[in-house]
Amino acid sequence: MRIQRIAIENREDNLEEVDLSQLDSVIEKFKNKKGITIPVLQAVQQIYGYLPAKAFDLLSEKTGIKKSELYGVATFYAQFRLKPVGKHIVKVCHGTACHVQGANIISESILEALKIADGETTTDGFYTVESVACLGCCSLAPVIMIDDEVFGKLSGKTAVNVIKEYQLKHNN
Amino acid sequence: MEQIKILVGLASCGIAAGANKIYEKISAIKEQEKLNFELTKTGCVGMCYREPLVEVIDDTGSYLYGEIDDVRITEIIEKHIKTGEPVKEYIVKTDLFENEDDSYCKNQVKIALRNCGVINPEVIEEYENAGGYLAVKKILNNNISQETVIQTIIDSGLRGRGGGGFPTGLKWKFAFNSKSDEKYIICNADEGDPGAFMDRSVLEGDPHSVLEGMTIAAYAIGATQGVIYCRAEYPLAIKRLNIAIDQSRAKGYLGKDIYGKKGWNFDIYVKEGAGAFVCGEETALMASVEGRRGMPRKRPPFPAVSGLWKKPTNINNVETFANVPYIVLNGAQSFNKYGTEKSKGTKVFALTGKIKRGGLVEVPMGISIKDIIFKHGGGIQGDKKFKAVQLGGPSGGCIPDYLAETPVDYDSILATGAIMGSGGMVVMDETTCMVDMARFFLDFTQKESCGKCTFCRIGTKRMLEILTRICEGEGKEGDIELLEELAYQIKDSSLCGLGQTAPNPVLTTIKYFRNEYEAHIRDKKCPAKSCKKLITYTVNPEKCTGCTVCAKNCPVNAISGERKQVHFIDQEVCIKCGVCFSKCKFEAINLS
Ligand SMILES: Cc1cc2nc3c(=O)[nH]c(=O)nc-3n(C[C@H](O)[C@H](O)[C@H](O)COP(=O)(O)O)c2cc1C
Ligand code: SF4
Ligand code: SF4
Ligand code: FES
């Protein structure tokens, strides 16, 4: 089911300092338009990489959209994250084509190499690894995407190499 | 001599294979050596298995080069561009002589994909030079009535390409008959079926054809606003759509008084999805556009009566719209001369999985599955045995090898228990476990269920638990019957297509591969040797030479051993990927 249950008081970032002034431009842009809940949340996530708890309070106050509705939408769609993420996001495709071509092996190899579980962030905060369904490059299966770059025709070994090289290249 | 033209296939698939770097390289060489040729981008040619692709057109004809890398492109420029001599070894397709890949392209009829891989999708003039926007202009110049346009679409026999297969013209007629001052056109570009990418290719390779199709639909039903609901996983498609929309507005093809016709207002904007399969369902999609959770609602009222913002709305799939300008321009007969009695025209299929040539093929309806897989697709990778093909994604089913003669048309596919779906064709060979496939799809639908209906929400979860148990060797007698019972209950008591079709992969695999289920349950064996809990890889000490190849290739370092000593696999660490098994030259890895 598409519903995540979250206890508000458990939200880890409740105490985290986030710069909410950046939200002004988002609120300004969408003010008085209809059907804005999803685009507003997308814009907020664009800024922080996730949806900070404090942003919900402010958004609700400024746009008049109920907090329950904001949370309802945020927990319904797979795109929205309620936790901070690493600097770079690795998406391992688990669509049908990639599954048939061994996506599980790619995931397990990468997670083993980074010593994390699916959906988690590495301790150095560099990578967050997620599973997704189909990146649309099925003929190159199995496929992973790091940030906006797609890598295809992988094996467990080459996937781990790609991850390592990418980190070397972007580690500064 | 006419100027030589070089086209680089820059769709997502090409870029993933490295086409951007090739484009930059050609551009750099051109700059450096002041060479005289035209360099341009294009969409997906469809031969994804040969990406990156570069096409050279000179006055002798067209040459498509495949699997281009730095070395090959330099050689092609040195020989073909500078001396006019094609580099034969790298050619994958040309009209001038025969090629190994010709059977991939032969008998394809490109209507929806007519411009993909031919024009530069970011230049509106290229679309117009290829006959683009002539269909709308034909309607306006000849004062063709709304009814006549709708009748043309009805006569063409075009049916919805999004999976349902509802006659497009009829749908337009319903929306036309609804009286309202405000109506909407929606293009469904959510392409939720994982393993399908036809819509992505059209959006990236020929966005204007979708805009023109939507404009014609808007004219036919009297709509003033269009929305393209595109999944967020397709950033390039979204970018190119927005470029196309801006260009169309600048030309007066979108906006107010379009095409110079006073009072005809129609504009389009792109709405990004947020990652939910169920939002492909039309009522959920509209809820999502309105900014709510994407939950389906009861129909009627149908969108044609009460849709987006409660106004009459017509919703069609990307490929459906891409066919429309062609039909209007060339007449219904140009389309319905292809296909079968009840399934007219052509259909695009995304061939993936264990197939030699994966990519996009557009073929007339009615050709057999076997022809697509073996003639176009070139058969199975590694010449393994073809086992089954999955059509229709999570809503569809697996068709076994012995039904490969089944023609691809809506009714014949339905008779097998699968559905035509949107066109994803995932090919499986003898190493694919069918119980695992069923489990995979149930895992998907169970996660994607919106949760509104009890049977869809909880029933799929129970089915998934049973399937997982079977895959792990914990299956019980009676499990198959229980799965079937649950399947029919879920089908009967779900509101939307997601729940109603979710059990299909399970039902078809039970129907055609019952023996595999039984082997898992009774013998605790996976006949395809794929279910992880039921297999182990070990080193045979008699045969192991200590060559270290397995250890070097193991992705998780599960293998230890000194050079020239017998190696050892740590079962705790091993993820059963099978790499050691396939890499060992001495057959020293046992699979049991
Ligand atoms: C769960 C579910 C997912 C769907 N996903 C898609 C999709 O991704 N793309 C699509 O075009 N149609 C999808 N459909 C079908 C749409 O509801 C609708 O029938 C279609 O967009 C109508 O366009 P057409 O008549 O041109 O096919 C889906 C239906 C269901 C029930
Ligand atoms: S069938 Fe499933 S996805 Fe469809 S409305 Fe019911 S719960 Fe939601
Ligand atoms: S099956 Fe894969 S993970 Fe297991 S030992 Fe062999 S190479 Fe390593
Ligand atoms: S299934 Fe992985 S890219 Fe489509």
Blueprint (SSEs and pairs):
The complex is a heterodimer of chains A (about 170) and B (about 600).
Chain A: H1 23-30, H2 37-48, H3 53-63, H4 67-76, E1 88-93, H5 96-100, H6 103-114, E2 127-132, E3 144-146, E4 149-151, H7 156-170
Chain B: E1 4-9, H1 12-16, H2 19-33, E2 37-42, E3 54-58, E4 61-65, H3 70-83, E5 91-94, H4 102-105, H5 124-129, H6 134-141, H7 146-156, H8 168-177, E6 184-189, H9 198-205, H10 207-221, E7 225-230, H11 235-250, E8 267-272, H12 282-289, E9 313-317, H13 318-330, H14 332-336, E10 346-353, E11 359-364, H15 369-376, E12 386-391, E13 397-400, H16 410-416, E14 424-429, H17 434-448, H18 454-471, H19 479-493, H20 497-501, H21 504-522, E15 537-539, H22 549-553, E16 559-560, E17 568-569, H23 579-583, E18 589-591
Parallel strand pairs in B: 1-2, 6-7, 6-9, 7-8, 10-14
Antiparallel strand pairs in B: 1-3, 3-4, 4-5, 10-11, 12-13, 12-14, 15-18, 16-17
One iron/sulfur cluster binds near residues 296, 452, 453, 457 and 499 of chain B.
Model description:
The complex is a heterodimer of chains A (172) and B (592). Chain A is an alpha+beta fold and 172 residues long. Chain A is built from seven helices and four strands, in the order ααααβααβββα. In chain A, 42% of the residues lie in helices and 10% in strands. A four-stranded mixed β-sheet of chain A has the order 2-1-3-4, with helices on one face. In chain A, a hairpin with a 2-residue loop joins strand 3 and strand 4. The N and C termini of chain A lie far apart (40 Å). The mean pLDDT of chain A is 88. Chain B has 592 residues and is of the alpha/beta class. Chain B folds into five domains: 102 residues, Glutaredoxin (3-Layer(aba) Sandwich), CATH 3.40.30; 213 residues, 3-Layer(aba) Sandwich (Rossmann fold), CATH 3.40.50.11540; 84 residues, Roll (Ubiquitin-like (UB roll)); 90 residues, de novo design (two linked rop proteins), CATH 1.20.1440; 56 residues, Alpha-Beta Plaits (2-Layer Sandwich), CATH 3.30.70. Chain B has a five-stranded mixed β-sheet, covered by helices on one side. In chain B, strands 11-10-14-12-13 form a five-stranded mixed β-sheet. A four-stranded parallel β-sheet of chain B has the order 8-7-6-9, with helices on both faces. Chain B starts with a strand and ends with a strand. At the A-B interface, helix 2, helix 4, helix 5, helix 6 and helix 7 of A face helix 1, strand 10, strand 14 and helix 17 of B.
